[in-house]
From TrEMBL:
Residues 179-342 form the AAA+ ATPase domain. Gene3D superfamilies: P-loop containing nucleotide triphosphate hydrolases. This is AAA+ ATPase domain-containing protein. It comes from the Eukaryota. InterPro entries: AAA+_ATPase, P-loop_NTPase, Spore_III_AA_AAA+_ATPase. The keyword Nucleotide-binding applies. One of its GO terms (molecular function) is ATP binding. Residues 434-453 are annotated as: Disordered. Residues 435-447 have a biased composition (Gly residues). Keywords: ATP-binding, Nucleotide-binding.
Amino acid sequence: EAAELASLPATTGVKALPASTPGVVHVAGAPEPRGAGSRSCAPGEENCLPEDGGTIVRDDLDALLFALPKRIREPLMRHPMRTSLLEVVLDLGRRPEARFLGVQGGEFLCDSEITAEDLELAEEAVGEFGSDNRAGVTGTLHRISALRSRRGALVGLTCRVGRSVSGHVDMIRDIIAQPGESILFLGAPGVGKTTVIREMARVMAEGAAGLGTTAGRRVVIVDTSNEIGGDGDVPHPAVGRARRMQVPDPTQQQHVMVEAVQNHMPQVVIVDEVGTNEEALACRTIAERGVQLVATAHGQVLENVLKNPTLTELVGGVAPVTLSDDEARSRGTQKTILERKGPVTFSVVIEMRERNHWIVHRPSDESVDMLLLGKRPIVESRRRNEAGEVEVQEIPYDNGAGEDDDRNGERYSWADQLSGISEHDALNELQRAGYLGGRGGGAMGGRRGGRRL
C-alpha cells in the first residue's frame, strides 16, 4: 500500500498564503501538530488545499481510502475531483458510488457490485461501531455510518470525509471576540456546521490576535459521535488545546453537557447536533450558569426552530397568549397569538446558507419577536468576496424559501395565520402542534396552557 501511494502524483496547486492575505486570523500559541489549523500549506504538504476566499482545507483522505476495497480505492486516488470528495456509499448488491461537493447526484466507481465480503473488510478497517451505528478511522475526522438489516447484519456503509478547515472563523471573529455570546448554527446537512465549530474550538482555546487576546479560554467539547475531535482517545490536532469529553451513548449527551460544567469549569462548551428537548433544557441550564455555548441544531432557518416544539427553548420558547377583547381590537389581531415566553438561550443565531454566505440574527430575541408578529427582522448578511474579505450588510430577512404573500408584501406572517379561524379551532390547532399542555385538544385545555394578557 505504501508503494501504491508513493506512485501517485502529489496534490497539485498548493501554495502558501501570504501573511497579508485579507480576512485572515493568525492564531498565536504553540506550534500545531501536523499543521492542523495553520493558515498556509507547508511546501510539499499533501492533503492540503487552499480554497477561494482565504480558507485552507486539510484531510486525511488516504486513511479513509485504504479502508476501502482496492477496486474502489484506485479510481478515487486518481480522481480529478478527489479534493472535493464528500462521501462514498457502499450498498450490498449495488455498485459503489462517490459523491462530490457541489455536484448533483453521484458517480459509480466500478461495474462490480458490493459483496458482503467487501463490507466485512471495510468494517474491520475502521473503529468499533457505537449504538448510533457510527464509527471512525482512528486519528482522523472521517465518519463511517452503517446500514443494517432487521437481523442486525451489515448491508451498507456511508463513508463521510471529514476535513479540517481553517479560515471560516473569519466570518464571525468580531462576534466570538466578545466572551459570553452564545452562538447557535443552523444549516442544511453538509454545509459545514461541524467544521466551523471545530475551528472555533481551536481558536477560542488558543487565543488569537484577531480576537483581541492571546490568552485562550477554557473550552470543553461534548463530542457525541467523535465528529468534532475525531475518532480515538487523543483528540485530533484540529481542535487545538480544547478539551474533549466523549459521550458513551447518544442518549446521554445532555448529562455529559451538564457534567462538563459541574466538573471541569469551562468558560465555553461546544456541542454538535442539539436535537431533543432534554438537550435543549441542558443548554438553558448551562447558559444560566454563565457559560458560553456554541452549538449546532437541526433546521436550516430560524423559523424551523420556532416551529419545532422540541427546540423552541433554544430561542426562548413559544407560548400562546389570550388577549382581552380590547387588546385584540387595538392590535388588530385575534384573541389568541404566539409570543416568546422567556429569554433566549442563544443570543446569536447563524443560518449557514452556503459556506461563504451566512445570515446572522443578532440579537436573536429581536428576530424571534418580529417573526412571531409576522414581520421581517433586520439581519446581517455576511459574505466572503474573492479577495477573502468578509462583507457585512444589514438587510430585511429572507428565509430563502421564495414564498409569495399578498398581505402587504409580508412573507413571514405564518404566526398570524390563525386569525382566519375561530378561537376554539385555533386553540385545538396549537394543542396538536405541541405548544399547549394538558390533555386532549379541547379549548379549555388550551386556555390553561397559555397566558392571559
